[in-house]
Amino acid sequence: MRTFLGLLLLAACTQSSPTEFESFLSQQPGKKYSLLIQDGQVIDGLGNDSYVVDLLIQDDTIVFIGKVDTALMEVEKTIGAAGEVVTPGFIDMHSHGNPLETPDFQNFLAMGATTISLGKDGSSPDYENLAEWMQLVEDTVPGVNIAMFVGHGTLRMQSGIKYNPRPSEEQLEKIGGLLEKNLDAGCFGMTTGLEYIPGFYAPSYELEHLAKIVGEREKVITSHVRNEDDSEVGSSIQELLNQGQFCQVNVSHMKVVYGQGESRAEEILDLLHQARQSGVQVTADVYPYTASYTGISILFPEWAKPPNDYQQVIANRRAELEEFLRNKVNQRNGPEATLLGTAPYAGKTLAQLAKEMNKPFEDILIDDIQPGGASGAYFVMNDSLQSRFIADSLVMISSDGSPTSRHPRGHGTFARIIEKFVVQDSVLTLTEAVRKMTSLPAQTMGISDRGTLTVGNKADILVFDPQQVHETATYEDPFQLAKGMNYVIVNGEISLENGELSSQRHGQMLRK
Predict the structure, then answer these.
(1) Domain boundaries, the chain
(2) How many Å apart are CA 403 and CA 408, to the nearest integer?
(3) Given pLDDT bands bounded at 50, 70 and 90, which one contains residue 256?
(4) Is the model's pLDDT at 19 over the cut of 80?
(5) pLDDT in tens, 46-65
(6) Secondary structure (H, E, C), 147-213
(7) CA neighbours within 13 Å on the CB side: how many for 53?
(8) Which of 3, 171, 456, 469 has the most CB atoms around it within 10 Å of its CB?
(9) What is the DSSP-derived secondary structure letter of residue 226?
(10) Could you tell me where the beta strands, DSSP code E, fall in 458-506?
(11) Could you read off the pLDDT of 294-303 as tens digits, one per residue?
């Protein structure tokens, strides 16, 4: 259904005439324009109906949307987009990677992501002032735009709180000061990873103290909540909603481990919608896969992880640890459902390793892998439940992926949304899918000049045929680039043309 604003925008664009274009040109005498995208089916990112129109770009900015008369101007390059859709570049609400080590980020570009966000799950680069790190990234020139968050777990370590479950007032002042410095340096908010050490130890009063600081600066907390298991996820989300009294909040990679069916998804979504009705600014993001991916330490009990001495745990509590791991893995659909992603185990399940090594999988975890020794994919989610999350209006799309992690989400997420959830299964319309991958994450993070095709916005733009978009990455071969993007434009420069990636990088370090 068209909104009133959508009707106004549609009328304005479809009624463009040479007179309007001439009026535009009269205010810009002598201009030669960088790029013209002609006759594309424009999806503006706001959820409005698409319309056929031209986009004119000068340097890194969209300067005109309407019918362009090419006889009245010069343009360096023209893209004929008839029969294709033109959308804003996708914005990844939750992603990973190190732009100082892998700055190209071709995995994201190939699936249409022109902006990614880093510093997730409570972990950011170990700089007390991230302004220094951001300047290094800016000097490197990444392949995509990067929105940085400061990690709560990193702040805990820097402030000296570390693993302390009851930080003092003085320690709160120290961690709060570090947070302020990084938010003021341009970070878009703070992330928490409460299922991980050291965030696991944070009490509610610490989190709410920091939420007030985030709120004062009109930024956002995005959280890997304390426990994503079916029995605990509701209370874990409520903990985040409590912080939402003080600032905007977002549930990272929302999932219900062991949960089943759409009705369970509805119960979780009701928490978010009721909170919105009570005035809490809450959103969530989700990736379109039923396997998670994280460090193997997620299987181990708190008492076998830092600051506890692992060798002492083995010496004194081995039988207890064996039983815990045996029960935990079996609860998570068994050793067949844990696929290792780190050498020398990469590509093998715990069940396969147990057979090859002729020993119980719990002994392999204790002796061979150990808590920090590997990462893996865990097949612990229900398809119909997660699909219901994807369809909800408050939920945006994220990859939770990187150029190097052995999970197809890092190379396939946005292509999979178009191919499976739009074209094949009709879970989403294309305009709604685009909104979830553009304006919704831009609004959530506070990126004011990207995420919509609007005059004055930065020219992060995609041109593609939805029927041709294809995810090629698999769990067996997760590093295959997505296919189907004809053009990917980053800050007005072509980063991918006719499926071929440019050797040049055009991203920016964004700051808020």
Answers:
(1) 293-379
(2) 10
(3) very high
(4) no
(5) 999 999 999 999 999 999 99
(6) EECEEHHHHHHHHCCCCCCCCCHHHHHHHHHHHHHHHHCCCCEEEEECCCCCHHHCCHHHHHHHHHH
(7) 26
(8) 469
(9) S
(10) 461-464, 485-490, 493-497, 500-501
(11) 999 999 999 9
